[in-house]
Amino acid sequence: MKIYAFADEASPAIDGQIAAMRRNGLNGLEIRGVDGENISAISLEKAKEVRRKLDDAGLCTWSIGSPIGKIDIETGDFAAHLEQLRHTLEVAQVLGAKRLRMFSFYIPAGKDPADYRNRVIDQVGEMLRVGEGSGVLFCHENEKGIYGDIASRCLDLHKAFPQMRGVFDPANYVQCGQETWSAWEELNPYIDYLHIKDALADGSVVPAGKGLGNVKRILDAYRAQIAQIATCTIAQLLGEDAKQFDNQTVTFVCTIVKNKIMTTKSNTLMAFTTVEDLTGSMEMIVFPRILAECRAALQENAVVVANGRVSVKEDEAARLLVEGVQPIDSYDPNKNFGMNRVERVKRETSGGGAAGYFLTVPARDCPEMHKVENLLCNIFDGGTVKVYFRFLDTGKAVLARHMAIKDDPLLRTELERILGKNCVKVQDIEQSAK
Fold first, then answer.
1. What stretches of 278-384 show up as alpha helix (H) in DSSP?
2. Mind giving me the DSSP string for 65-91?
């Protein structure tokens, strides 16, 4: 679990904020106030100066703690507010922030929030449209006095805008008379991160765990929820003991940071997807068939459950060869990630596996052979399975002595796609022993 800070509570000056984060062993902040100005009001030149200072200190900006959405739904100048949002997104780009905290408009005192629902939905939708393509995830925070002040209205917003995530603030709920545990149970599938704040019934803010916010219970549930799904963290896959995960099937919860979609030589699409969890970031490789199945889930800033086989090579960071991706809010632990995973489990539990791959290709020097060599030598290499080729133009059959690959259902699928099903034969260990 990562901890970031509203560092302007330690000092209004960015230099003082950096010093406070270093003293407390933190590596980033939700940036809100900088040298006496709100983050949404600073110039791009000032943002570049702040970025240089943070980079020099080895710190990052986790989120923009903006006031976007904190205007009166009746009297606020929404057009000017959208311009402020556009500028704030430019600031976010300079600072490298991938999240922007936002709100859902103050409701006039004494008025029924339900009377303003349609207007709130229209304006929140317009704000989200401004953010499209920015790579910044909009995160709605519950706040006293706005439309999304209690759990039911926050849920209404998230159902209307599933692309918008949530910031869960226990103290703000307490100040609205909302019981926080029931709010967590209702909203946790939509929550991206939490503010660690607590409050008493009279609204006064107190240290976390000293109020009515159920902070410890919620944090424990948050950890347990991830632990129930994930078999590892990204930090484990990138750490000193990463080799133990090589060729293992893993599952983890992550956020999609960036997709690089590429067209293969056979005119199909595959993706190199950067993801992050609370411990680090890594790259996933999504082959064409899997991409066709999971592309809707691979949206930037989406929180997903990813499953696949880990590939660890010398002098390279571990990568995940994806077998499936499911959105976290619709994740079903009883639903498998496709036949690839079923076949793998069946094979691993039965003690089976491949003894050799027998591949028929048109010629030693042909496009199909080049694609196959790329798969075997650069992605599925480092195993113990032998590879045999038969070339149709000469009729020769040879053992590829330089290749020793890892058997994997994804590899079989890709080879069949490139060469055709009849040109890919796999001899299982049990068959080899007979």
1. 288-294, 339-350, 367-374
2. ---TT-SBTTTS-HHHHHHHHHHHHHH
For the stretch 116-162, pLDDT in tens is 999 999 999 999 999 998 889 999 999 999 999 999 999 999 999 98
Read off φ and ψ for residue 245, nearest 5 degrees.
-90, -5
Of 129, 118, 85, nearest in space to 103 by CA = 85
Distance CA 106, CA 69 (A): 8
Beta pairing partners, 109: none
CA-wise closest residue to 170 among 145, 190, 147, 151: 151
Distance of CA 171 to the CA centre of its chain: 27
pLDDT at 331: 76
One-letter amino acid identity for 314? E
Higher-pLDDT residue of 363 and 347 is: 363
Q: Are 69 and 146 in contact (CB under 8 A)?
A: yes
d(CA 309, CA 251): 9
Q: How far apart are CA 138 and CA 132, in angstroms?
A: 10
Per-residue tokens: 27 = 């590596």
Describe the crossing of helices 44-56 and 14-23 by its angle, rounded to 10 degrees: 30
Q: How many CA atoms lie within 13 A of 11 on its CB side?
A: 12
Do residues 137 and 175 make contact, with C-beta atoms less than 8 angstroms apart?
no
